[in-house]
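anyone seen this seq b4? input:
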Amino acid sequence: MDNINKTTAAWDFTTVALKAEIARSADETWSVVGNFSDTRKFLPVINKMISGIGGLGSIRQIGEEIFEVLVGIGRHSYTYAQVAGPMAPYQYHGCIVVEETGESTCRVIYTLSYNEALLDEETKGQERERISKRFQGAVDAMKKAVENVS
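predicted toks r here
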């Protein structure tokens, strides 16, 4: 526990939430977007599983330097933490959730949280903008993939 900054408070974290309404059921949507190893389907990245098969503790590698571990799984959700890579020092973690909004509609929500207090003022805004743009693109790609399934 020596590597944890004990002065970090909850208000030091920022959360970016990106959403899309989808004209499919939560179950149908999750069957398309719910695989921890499918990052490359929704973001322009190269990824591979380096440990596990998608259960708790599985680790994926994105590009050459990013490693993320799956730390939570729900019926229509998963949560991961970046353990190595450019955002790892900021306790970066993400969560994908599919919420049922009707019998045949749902909402996908991708939240990303990190310790913004560790960034300088200029970088804070740049990171929020970069993350928002990149991951709204992922959410939009998820929506397109789901709604294009026959």
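The CA atoms of residues 43 and 138 lie 5 Å apart. The beta strands are 13-22, 47-51, 59-62, 66-74, 77-84, 93-102, 105-115. kinda curious what u guys think
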